[in-house]
Structures are given as C-alpha cells and as structure tokens.
Amino acid sequence: MPTPNRFGKPATAMNLLLTYCLVVLYGFGNQLQAPLEPFLVERLVGQGDTSASASYGRLQSLYWGIQIVGSFLFGCLLDKVGVRLGFGLNFLCCAATYSLQSAAGSMAALYASKIPGIGMNGVLCAQTAVSQFTDPGPERFQALGRLTTAYTVGGVIGPYLGGLLGARGGHGYILGAKVATGSALLAAFGSGLLASPTQPQEPRAFQGERLPLWQRLGTVANKAGFVLVVKLLTSVANAVASSTLNLVLKNELGFAEADLGLFLSAQFACGAVANAVLLGPASRLLGGRPSAVVRNCVAALAVGYGLQAAALNVGGLMQLTPSLRRSTFIGIALSLALFQYSLATSITAESTELVPKAMKGTLLGMEHCLFSAARAFSPAIGIGMLDDYGTWGLYGSCSSILLATYLLWITTYEQVDFAAGKRIR
Question: What CATH number belongs to 9-193+209-424?
Fold first, then answer.
C-alpha cells in the first residue's frame, strides 16, 4: 500500500504549480543557449576550421562529464536537504554558468563556464519533488508528464529567442547569456517559496535517510537496477543521435542560427504535445502501466531511427531537392521527439514506484548520472561515426541498440500472462 504524501492538498497543489514554473524557467535558460553554441565555438576556433566540430563535441562532453559526478552527488544531497535548497543551489549554479559564458572570449573560457554545471540539476530536483508530492500510480505518471511539458514550454521559447538574438551577431550572443542569467536568478528566488510538509514526517531511520550511502545504493540497485540499465541503453542511442543533430542541420542542411533555434523550439513543442496531450490517453489505453509505455516507445524509436538510416543515404533523400530534403528530415526528427519525451517520463514513473520514498533522490541521481554518462561520451562517438560511416551508420547503430533493448525488456522485465492475455511485470 503506497505511503500517502506528507503534504496537505492545498500545499501539494501549490508545490506542484511552483515546481512547474521553476522548470519552465530552467528549460528557458538552459535551451536559450543551445542554438548559439555551435556558432559561438566556430567564432572562437575560427570559421571554416575543421576542428570546430571536434571542439563543439568536446564542449558537450565536458559538461556531461561534470554532470556524471554532479547528478549523482546532487541526488544524494536532495535526500538530506530537500528540494527547496536543492532548487536554490541549482539555479545559482545556472546563473554562474550563463554569466561566465557571456564573458567567454576564448575556448578556454568557454570550457571554464561549464564547471559550475556540476550543480545544474533542475530536472532532477523537479522529478524528486514530484515523486515526493504525489502518490505512486496514475497521479505521479500524469504529474511527471506535466513536468516534462513544463520543461518543453521553456524549451520552445528559449531556442527561438536564442536564435533571434544570435542572428544579431556577437552582441546577441552576450545578450542571450545575460537573459539566461537573469531568469536563473529569478528562479533561485522563487524556489524559496516551496511549501514545507504540513504533517509530521515518519522517523528518519525508518525512512532510510540515515542509512550509509553504500547501503542506499545497494537497495536502489536491487529494486530498480534493470530499469536503470534500460535507461542507460536508451540514453546512449538517443544521445548519439541528438549530439550530432545540430551539426547535421548546420553543415548538411545549411541551417543558420535562426533556423536552428526554430527547429529546436518545434522539437520541444512536439515533446510538450506528447506529454500534455498524448501521454494521458496512452497510459489509460495501456492500462495505466508505465512499463507498457516504455516498451512501446522503445519499439517506436527503433523503427524511427531505422527509417532515418534508410532515408538519409545516397539512394534516399540525396536524390530530392534541398527544400524537400530539409522538410523530410525535419518531419522524421520531430516524430522521434514525440516518443523520446514519453520514454523519459515513463522510465522515471516506472523506477520511482520501485524504491522507498526516502531514497527517490538517490534513485533519480543515479538515473541522471547514467544519462549524463551517455551524453558525455556520445558526442565523440556520434561525430566519429558520422565522419566515418555517414548517417547510415549513425542512425543504424541507434536503431540496433534500441531493438536489442526492446527484446531485453519483453524477455526479461515483462512476462506474458497467457490466461489473462496481457503482459505483467
């Protein structure tokens, strides 16, 4: 029987609403910089320099490498200090990163701007908050879907504005970083408004908050280890594809700053639609089980990347006119976004049902650590595959990883109840 959340209904509603608002600001500031970084790197390295792509990949790897350590430590910290202080620390680190980026005049300075990223864990804070404010089941599943939608709202506005500012040249890059800094400071102030529990907590020793770190890690790994492995495999496939997407759009399809910003905004909008409109009906249609959504999203992504691998070769889109090539590629990429966001939400919903409430921060820290590890190594892998094997090898590999994950999921995690005619966990 699930333990009811420790907040009264008014406080719970206010906490959730404020959490969504904070995530909008986090997504806005974080994604405002996304369409500018490839062009900023090119300006600092030298236009036309062949090392610009490699430098951009190293910049991504540095940030996500820092996140490997940061997200794990941050998740454990959240179990100790709570989400209010966690949110505040997160947004102060965001402000430091954006401020340093606004003053970066060399690649060394741009690399240094990523160091405060060790504390940039806004999504981790929000997921931990939602898992504490809601009970397991459809309520949490829906809340996590709305949380992802909130991030995509910021992700729609941020890249679009960033692309417009970047089109103005160097001054626009600096202004974009300053706008992101201001939004982070505003959110840091707003995080202090999160409500406190209205009912006494259970004894900490019973909740597990005083257990040694190694024992908490062992408990989480024992209860949710398989789902974490699936998180890693799917993150690798999606990260390899996404880490090269901006370069494919910029170098092969001729996207400028404003074009790239508009595309990224549209991609986030698809994620918002997937979680705000499609996730609820889909979960009800599938019996409300996140495990079924995970299975079907993995299958859909495997097929989608397979279509990209088949389409983006010499016998496919290369034969089309430039405008038709661009439109077809965008259509495939936006369709994939629908399933990527739903997959991330459903994996988190599934994993948080498996561990005690006092260990959810540790669980989500481990989950984000694995995601960060995938993102840290994927730029070098993706760019290398793109250079050596082209889009056929790149997207074909992503499809193969997801197909193997699907087979592993249906044969190991889910079992078929032939009498009832359905799958069970």
Answer: 1.20.1250.20
d(CA 242, CA 361): 27
Asked whether the CA dihedral 192, 195, 199, 205 is positive or negative, the reply is negative
CA distances to 26, 81, 180, 282 from 241, in Å: 23, 36, 26, 25
Query: Terminus-to-terminus CA distance in the chain, angstroms?
Result: 17
SS3 289: coil
pLDDT in tens, 323-367: 777 777 788 888 888 788 778 888 888 888 888 877 888 888 888
Residue 149 token pair: 């939608």
d(CA 270, CA 275): 9
The larger pLDDT score, comparing residue 225 to residue 79, is at 225
pTM of the model: 0.70
For residues 403 and 305, what is the distance between their CA atoms, to the nearest angstrom? 10
Element (H, E) at 416: strand 415-417
Does position 322 have pLDDT exceeding 70, yes or no? no
Which residue, among 185, 186, 195, 237, has the nearest Cα to 344 in the 3D structure?
Answer: 237
